[in-house]
Amino acid sequence: MERTSDSLPPAADAAPVLDLRGVHKSFGRGAHRVDAVRGVDLTVHRGDVVALLGHNGAGKSVTLDMALGLQAPASGEVRVCGDRPSRAVSAGRVGAMLQSGALLDDLRVAETVRAVASLHPGGRRRVGSVMDRAGLTPLATRRVSRCSGGEKQRLRFALALLPDPDLMVLDEPTAGMDVSARQEFWEVVSAEAQAGRTIVFATHYLAEAEEYAPRTVLMAGGRVIADDTTEAVRSRVPGRVLTCTTPDAGRLAQQLAGEPDVVDVRTPTPDRLEMRVTDSDRFARLALTEWRATGLQIVPLGLDEAFAELTREATDPHGGTDSDQSTPPARPEPAATAA
């Protein structure tokens, strides 16, 4: 039976959709060697939605390249749907949106989808469904050159859906989009995720991971430094953020800077105090009883604070973090399934 986003079948076997074991990848030699990926273990099961986070140079894109068969690991093993990545891609079990890969501006949207569909077995009969799911049917006759950035990303997503893949790999899929376009794009992706499609996406937008990914994998210096539910990753960094308005903000900031329960304190405006604390109840009482504070707010740490703290703690043995590393060589041209 033809698969649709409404009904994905159970896995043909018990193998994870994506499985990396002890994977290493380096570029160059001697003094010019860059260790881009260092002993990564990552297992993704059917129906998982996983956000892959990290600064530039953390190893995210190289890891995804190996999952797609675009790069071979120096050591370790990569399996996709129980097979070698290249074979899984050739079999149409993987669809991808990469940072590279241009569209033909002179073609119309529907022409582009039909052209790529012809490369996949059964692809032509999926054209209408894929365009509907990606919200492209109203744009069918529009030339690609006339599409907005968000519309082009939805087109790339539609092309990645054409092989009806088990796994979708999205590398920075909303880079360059405005807020409205990002929201529209994630509505499309979320529909596939809710239907059971396995999705792994790399992003710089931490709010996207927080909102759309039940699981977050954080990379730094080519290593996985956190892999858990997004809520658990956020909770690994203790404390809450307390903010209030007080005429004594400057004096209090200097006084509180040495307190053991104060992780960070600053004054964004002369009368506004913002603190990250491990004992929010105590400081809330002080704010209300001694600091003449108004507008008191206490909120949990967001994923962005956890990301910054965990990445800062993950300095590599050579004294630098992943952001210090050179950029690895450019990707080879992706296969047709990697839209």
TrEMBL record:
<dbReference type="InterPro" id="IPR027417">
    <property type="entry name" value="P-loop_NTPase"/>
</dbReference>
<keyword id="KW-0046">Antibiotic resistance</keyword>
<dbReference type="InterPro" id="IPR003593">
    <property type="entry name" value="AAA+_ATPase"/>
</dbReference>
<keyword id="KW-0067">ATP-binding</keyword>
<dbReference type="InterPro" id="IPR050763">
    <property type="entry name" value="ABC_transporter_ATP-binding"/>
</dbReference>
<keyword id="KW-0547">Nucleotide-binding</keyword>
<dbReference type="Pfam" id="PF00005">
    <property type="entry name" value="ABC_tran"/>
</dbReference>
<feature type="domain" description="ABC transporter">
    <location>
        <begin position="18"/>
        <end position="246"/>
    </location>
</feature>
<dbReference type="GO" id="GO:0005886">
    <property type="term" value="C:plasma membrane"/>
</dbReference>
<feature type="region of interest" description="Disordered">
    <location>
        <begin position="310"/>
        <end position="339"/>
    </location>
</feature>
<feature type="compositionally biased region" description="Basic and acidic residues">
    <location>
        <begin position="310"/>
        <end position="321"/>
    </location>
</feature>
<dbReference type="InterPro" id="IPR017871">
    <property type="entry name" value="ABC_transporter-like_CS"/>
</dbReference>
<dbReference type="GO" id="GO:0046677">
    <property type="term" value="P:response to antibiotic"/>
</dbReference>
<dbReference type="InterPro" id="IPR003439">
    <property type="entry name" value="ABC_transporter-like_ATP-bd"/>
</dbReference>
<dbReference type="GO" id="GO:0016887">
    <property type="term" value="F:ATP hydrolysis activity"/>
</dbReference>
<keyword id="KW-0813">Transport</keyword>
<protein>
    <submittedName>
        <fullName>ABC-2 type transport system ATP-binding protein</fullName>
    </submittedName>
</protein>
<dbReference type="GO" id="GO:0005524">
    <property type="term" value="F:ATP binding"/>
</dbReference>
